[in-house]
Every structure is written in structure tokens, then in C-alpha cells.
From TrEMBL:
InterPro entries in UniProt: SMC_hinge_sf
Protein name as it appears in the record: Uncharacterized protein
GO biological process: mitotic chromosome condensation
Family matches, as SUPFAM superfamilies: Smc hinge domain
Top-rank taxon, per record: Eukaryota
Protein source organism: Nymphaea colorata (pocket water lily)
């Protein structure tokens, strides 16, 4: 990279090395450095959790999902019963008003 950046004709070029270092036209060098340490987020946590703990957590999750489905069904049923009760109450009030007029 330095051979290309500072070539034979004394005309500086902007060049990036394979390691990521940047040679500017002014002659300064920037970037590069050590190896990037990214991409390892959460790897230490995976090593400390046993397969038994994962299995137990999955069983508990499945149980909770089943309980949630049952509760949602109960909510829907209760909503339908409430609407039916509201309708019956309205009909009774209309019937009461009619009988009081007679």
C-alpha cells in the first residue's frame, strides 16, 4: 500500500490497506489498529446456561403459552356473555316500559 500511495512519480494517492489503514494524500496514516472485537455479544452467557436449564425454561414457556390461550378464550367467552346480558337487559327494559303503559 505504501508503494502505491507514495509511488515513483511523487504524486500521493489515497490508499486503503487490507488491514484497514488509510493513507491520505497529505501523507498521514489513519485507521487500522487491532482486530475488531465485535460480534461476540452474548457468547459468554450461552456457555454458562446448561441444556437442562434451557429445557426447563422451554417447558415452562409452553405451559405459560397454554395458560394464556385458556385465559384468552375465557375473555372472549365473558365478552360474549356480557353482550348477551346487555341485550337481554335492554329487551327487559323495553318490555317493562310496555307493560307499565298498559
Amino acid at each position: 500500500a505504501t508503494r502505491i500511495a507514495y509511488g515513483e512519480n511523487k504524486e500521493f494517492r489515497r490508499v486503503v490497506t487490507l488491514e484497514g489503514a488509510l493513507f491520505e494524500k497529505s501523507g498521514t496514516m489513519s485507521g487500522g489498529g487491532g482486530k475488531p472485537r465485535g460480534g461476540k455479544m452474548g457468547t459468554s452467557i450461552k456457555a454458562s446456561v446448561s441444556t437442562e436449564a434451557v429445557g426447563n425454561a422451554e417447558k415452562e414457556l409452553a405451559l405459560l403459552v397454554d395458560q394464556l390461550a385458556v385465559l384468552r378464550l375465557k375473555i372472549v367467552t365473558a365478552g360474549k356473555r356480557y353482550q348477551a346480558s346487555e341485550k337481554a337487559l335492554a329487551n327487559l327494559e323495553i318490555h317493562l316500559a310496555k307493560t307499565q303503559m298498559e
